[in-house]
Amino acid sequence: MEIVNEEILLPNLNQFCLHPVYFSATIYPISMNHLWSPWRMEYIENHNKTAGCIFCEAQKRADSAENLIALRGEHAFVILNRYPYTSGHVMVVPFEHRPNLEELDSATRAEMMELTARCTKILREIYRTESFNIGANIGEAAGAGVKEHVHIHVVPRWVGDTNFMSTLGSTRVLPERLEDTYQRIRAALEAG
Ligand SMILES: [Zn+2]
Protein backbone atom coordinates (compact mmCIF):
# COMPACT_ATOMS: atom_id res chain seq x y z
CA MET A 1 0.00 0.00 0.00
CA GLU A 2 1.30 3.41 -0.87
CA ILE A 3 0.75 6.35 1.44
CA VAL A 4 0.79 9.72 -0.22
CA ASN A 5 0.86 13.05 1.60
CA GLU A 6 0.20 11.32 4.87
CA GLU A 7 1.26 14.30 6.94
CA ILE A 8 -1.30 16.50 5.29
CA LEU A 9 -4.12 14.00 5.37
CA LEU A 10 -3.46 12.47 8.78
CA PRO A 11 -1.23 14.57 11.00
CA ASN A 12 -1.46 12.46 14.15
CA LEU A 13 -2.18 8.95 15.33
CA ASN A 14 -5.54 9.83 16.82
CA GLN A 15 -6.68 10.63 13.36
CA PHE A 16 -5.12 7.44 12.05
CA CYS A 17 -7.36 5.56 14.43
CA LEU A 18 -10.38 6.96 12.67
CA HIS A 19 -9.03 5.61 9.40
CA PRO A 20 -8.28 1.89 9.89
CA VAL A 21 -6.61 1.49 6.53
CA TYR A 22 -4.11 4.23 7.26
CA PHE A 23 -3.72 3.10 10.87
CA SER A 24 -2.73 -0.37 9.83
CA ALA A 25 -0.39 0.79 7.11
CA THR A 26 1.26 3.33 9.36
CA ILE A 27 1.78 1.29 12.50
CA TYR A 28 2.98 -1.83 10.76
CA PRO A 29 4.62 -0.64 7.59
CA ILE A 30 6.76 -3.27 5.97
CA SER A 31 9.25 -0.74 4.69
CA MET A 32 9.68 1.43 7.79
CA ASN A 33 13.31 2.23 8.50
CA HIS A 34 14.61 2.83 12.01
CA LEU A 35 17.64 5.03 12.69
CA TRP A 36 18.98 2.76 15.40
CA SER A 37 21.44 0.52 13.72
CA PRO A 38 22.01 -2.20 16.38
CA TRP A 39 18.29 -2.61 16.71
CA ARG A 40 17.76 -2.56 12.98
CA MET A 41 20.45 -5.16 12.42
CA GLU A 42 18.81 -7.39 14.99
CA TYR A 43 15.56 -7.06 13.11
CA ILE A 44 17.18 -7.95 9.82
CA GLU A 45 19.03 -10.92 11.28
CA ASN A 46 16.23 -12.38 13.39
CA HIS A 47 13.08 -11.36 11.62
CA ASN A 48 12.34 -14.76 10.11
CA LYS A 49 14.09 -16.96 12.64
CA THR A 50 11.46 -17.18 15.37
CA ALA A 51 9.63 -20.48 15.18
CA GLY A 52 6.21 -20.69 16.76
CA CYS A 53 4.43 -17.99 18.73
CA ILE A 54 6.74 -15.20 19.94
CA PHE A 55 4.69 -14.69 23.12
CA CYS A 56 4.73 -18.39 24.03
CA GLU A 57 8.44 -18.62 23.23
CA ALA A 58 9.23 -15.57 25.39
CA GLN A 59 7.46 -17.15 28.37
CA LYS A 60 9.80 -20.15 28.26
CA ARG A 61 12.93 -18.06 28.75
CA ALA A 62 14.18 -16.29 31.87
CA ASP A 63 13.10 -12.67 32.11
CA SER A 64 15.78 -10.31 30.84
CA ALA A 65 16.45 -7.78 28.12
CA GLU A 66 16.59 -10.82 25.85
CA ASN A 67 13.03 -12.05 26.18
CA LEU A 68 11.79 -8.53 27.08
CA ILE A 69 9.24 -9.68 29.69
CA ALA A 70 9.20 -6.88 32.26
CA LEU A 71 6.62 -8.32 34.65
CA ARG A 72 4.75 -11.60 35.12
CA GLY A 73 1.37 -11.51 36.81
CA GLU A 74 -0.83 -14.45 37.72
CA HIS A 75 -2.54 -14.80 34.33
CA ALA A 76 -0.77 -12.31 32.08
CA PHE A 77 2.53 -10.55 31.55
CA VAL A 78 4.00 -7.28 30.30
CA ILE A 79 6.50 -7.46 27.44
CA LEU A 80 8.29 -4.73 25.53
CA ASN A 81 7.70 -4.50 21.81
CA ARG A 82 10.99 -5.39 20.13
CA TYR A 83 10.18 -3.04 17.28
CA PRO A 84 8.51 -0.19 19.17
CA TYR A 85 6.41 2.51 17.63
CA THR A 86 7.66 4.86 20.37
CA SER A 87 9.98 4.35 23.35
CA GLY A 88 8.10 2.56 26.10
CA HIS A 89 5.77 0.68 23.72
CA VAL A 90 4.74 -2.37 25.74
CA MET A 91 2.20 -5.14 25.32
CA VAL A 92 0.02 -6.89 27.88
CA VAL A 93 -0.33 -10.57 26.99
CA PRO A 94 -2.16 -13.52 28.60
CA PHE A 95 -0.04 -16.58 29.37
CA GLU A 96 -2.65 -18.63 27.54
CA HIS A 97 -2.27 -18.94 23.76
CA ARG A 98 -5.69 -17.75 22.54
CA PRO A 99 -6.55 -15.52 19.60
CA ASN A 100 -9.60 -13.78 21.08
CA LEU A 101 -10.47 -12.01 24.31
CA GLU A 102 -13.70 -13.97 24.74
CA GLU A 103 -11.72 -17.21 24.90
CA LEU A 104 -9.92 -16.04 28.05
CA ASP A 105 -11.47 -16.35 31.48
CA SER A 106 -12.68 -13.32 33.41
CA ALA A 107 -9.76 -13.33 35.82
CA THR A 108 -7.30 -13.14 32.93
CA ARG A 109 -9.14 -10.32 31.21
CA ALA A 110 -9.39 -8.41 34.49
CA GLU A 111 -5.68 -8.77 35.14
CA MET A 112 -4.87 -7.64 31.61
CA MET A 113 -6.73 -4.40 32.23
CA GLU A 114 -5.04 -3.97 35.61
CA LEU A 115 -1.63 -4.47 34.02
CA THR A 116 -2.53 -2.03 31.25
CA ALA A 117 -3.34 0.62 33.85
CA ARG A 118 -0.17 -0.19 35.75
CA CYS A 119 1.82 0.32 32.54
CA THR A 120 0.31 3.74 31.89
CA LYS A 121 1.06 4.71 35.49
CA ILE A 122 4.75 3.85 35.32
CA LEU A 123 5.16 5.20 31.79
CA ARG A 124 3.82 8.55 33.02
CA GLU A 125 6.42 8.46 35.78
CA ILE A 126 9.35 7.39 33.63
CA TYR A 127 8.71 9.34 30.43
CA ARG A 128 6.30 12.04 31.58
CA THR A 129 3.87 10.61 29.08
CA GLU A 130 0.51 12.35 29.02
CA SER A 131 -1.04 10.51 26.10
CA PHE A 132 -1.42 6.89 25.09
CA ASN A 133 -2.83 4.75 22.34
CA ILE A 134 -4.13 1.53 23.88
CA GLY A 135 -5.72 -1.25 21.91
CA ALA A 136 -5.69 -4.67 20.37
CA ASN A 137 -5.60 -5.65 16.72
CA ILE A 138 -7.66 -8.83 16.57
CA GLY A 139 -7.61 -10.82 13.35
CA GLU A 140 -5.78 -10.36 10.10
CA ALA A 141 -7.98 -7.63 8.65
CA ALA A 142 -7.41 -5.55 11.78
CA GLY A 143 -3.65 -5.68 11.25
CA ALA A 144 -2.72 -8.17 13.96
CA GLY A 145 0.98 -8.99 13.84
CA VAL A 146 0.58 -12.08 16.02
CA LYS A 147 -3.04 -12.98 15.47
CA GLU A 148 -2.92 -16.36 17.23
CA HIS A 149 -2.14 -14.85 20.65
CA VAL A 150 -4.22 -11.85 21.65
CA HIS A 151 -2.38 -8.88 23.18
CA ILE A 152 -3.02 -5.27 24.16
CA HIS A 153 -0.66 -2.57 22.90
CA VAL A 154 0.20 0.37 25.15
CA VAL A 155 1.89 3.07 23.07
CA PRO A 156 3.10 6.26 24.79
CA ARG A 157 2.48 9.39 22.73
CA TRP A 158 3.89 12.89 22.87
CA VAL A 159 2.80 15.99 21.04
CA GLY A 160 4.87 16.19 17.88
CA ASP A 161 6.04 12.57 17.90
CA THR A 162 4.56 12.07 14.47
CA ASN A 163 7.06 14.24 12.73
CA PHE A 164 7.88 14.73 9.10
CA MET A 165 10.44 11.93 9.16
CA SER A 166 7.95 9.28 10.19
CA THR A 167 5.03 10.54 8.20
CA LEU A 168 6.77 11.33 4.96
CA GLY A 169 9.99 9.37 5.15
CA SER A 170 8.72 6.22 6.90
CA THR A 171 11.62 6.67 9.29
CA ARG A 172 11.38 6.91 13.04
CA VAL A 173 14.08 7.98 15.48
CA LEU A 174 14.06 6.07 18.75
CA PRO A 175 15.85 8.08 21.44
CA GLU A 176 16.67 5.24 23.82
CA ARG A 177 18.22 1.78 23.51
CA LEU A 178 15.70 -1.02 23.99
CA GLU A 179 17.77 -2.59 26.79
CA ASP A 180 17.74 0.70 28.70
CA THR A 181 13.98 0.98 28.25
CA TYR A 182 13.61 -2.58 29.49
CA GLN A 183 15.61 -1.94 32.66
CA ARG A 184 13.68 1.22 33.48
CA ILE A 185 10.25 -0.30 32.89
CA ARG A 186 11.08 -3.51 34.73
CA ALA A 187 12.36 -1.61 37.76
CA ALA A 188 9.31 0.64 37.84
CA LEU A 189 6.85 -2.26 37.53
CA GLU A 190 8.64 -4.23 40.24
CA ALA A 191 8.51 -1.20 42.54
CA GLY A 192 4.77 -1.21 42.07
ZN1 LIG B 1 1.27 -17.98 21.98
Write up this protein.
By secondary structure, this protein is an alpha+beta fold. The protein has one domain (53-191): HIT-like (HIT family, subunit A), CATH 3.30.428.10. The protein has helices at 6-9, 13-17, 20-27, 37-46, 54-60, 106-127, 164-169, 178-191, and strands spanning 33-34, 69-72, 76-80, 90-94, 131-135, 152-157, 171-172. The strands form 2 sheets. It has a 5-stranded antiparallel β-sheet, with helices on both faces. A two-stranded parallel ribbon has the order 1-7. α6 (106-127) crosses α8. The longest helix has 22 residues, at 106-127. The chain is globular. It starts with 5 loop residues before the first helix and ends with a helix. Mean pLDDT is 78; it is low at 1-41.
What key phrases describe this protein's structure?
192 residues, two-stranded parallel sheet, HIT family, subunit A, 5-stranded antiparallel β-sheet, globular, disordered N terminus, alpha+beta, 15% strand, binds zinc ion
Structural class call reads alpha+beta
* Assigned CATH architecture: 2-Layer Sandwich
According to CATH, the homologous superfamily is: HIT-like
CATH class: Alpha Beta
- The overall pLDDT average reads 78
**Helical segment count:** 8
Tell me about the biggest sheet? 5 strands, antiparallel
Hetero groups in this structure are: zinc ion
- Compute the number of strand runs: 7
Helical content band: 25-40%
